[in-house]
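**User:**
If convenient, please work through this fold.
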Amino acid sequence: MRSFVFGVVAALFVGSGASAQTPVRWLSQTPSVQTQFPIESAAMARITSAGVGLRVDRQEFMALGLNLGDALRLVRSGTYDIVSTQVGLASRDDPFLEGIDLIGVSTDMDDLESAVKAYRPLFDRRLEQRFGARALAIWPFGPQVFFCNQAIKTLDDLKGQRVRSFTPSMSKLLEQLGSTPVSISFPEVYPSLQRGVANCGVTSPTSANTGRWPEVTSHLLPLSVSGSVQAHLVNAAWFAKLSAPQKDVLSLELRRMEAELWNLARNTNEIATNCSIGKEPCTAPHVSYKMTLVDVAPADLERVRKISAEQVLPEWAERCERVYPNCKQAWNGSIGKARGIAIR
């Protein structure tokens, strides 16, 4: 990994007249241990070496002590030109954005892809109107499943437990299951699970494995409740000032990166699950552990769908309508239509 990182850093400064190039201030949420890192870094290197006068200057949320929830403010202010973030966390500034990946709506990658495609025009329009931003890439971490530091068999076993949550709609689901949602940033989840501040956490199999969650959890319930949609946001005013070739390169490379990250979410999470439960194939950068894999009960799947339809969606629509008139109608006509779901 170290040699790869060195190669990427070197590539970012390839080309003559690097000092005359337009800097792209890129704030990333992806540390080097995550499986998404090589894909994002390769996109940065291609942009810098494309010969259109761009130079990517990468910084990282965690290294700077910045909060992912501030992503929209950071890109709107022009502090950074491109910012990547978890949409659910950023949506505290606008609940309409969370509508792209509400809990219980899209529980596999095919359903999620159709939902994102349907919502994307509305999502981009809202970003530009309220935050002066555009989404050059939208992609998922993968299925969001449950990791617990004690034995569980069904969702009933989450009752009375403290469970890490990172979106309002996820917290609503957990409350309906009798759990106490605990808002914890990803870097703090490991020690929280270790000390018992949280009993369970929700994340993707690959994020959990590379984040070493299996060291402090024992049971994995692979019941997916969402896809954890991420976005690479660009400051629209800054983007508008670029030359046509520069815009083309950025758009092309981030869409290419997006496609590769979707493929990663589809394929790598199965390997990560294998690794977490000590099953082959298990490949780097994932590490083999000995967690217990819990069978998903059909009744639990139906329970999540029921809570989503009866509690999560109406509650989200009510919050959204306060800041976005006709929010429910917009969602029903996009994701709702694509998924065959309607908020009543």
Summary: Confidence is low (pLDDT under 50) at residues 1-19. The radius of gyration is 20 Å. The longest helix spans residues 244-276.
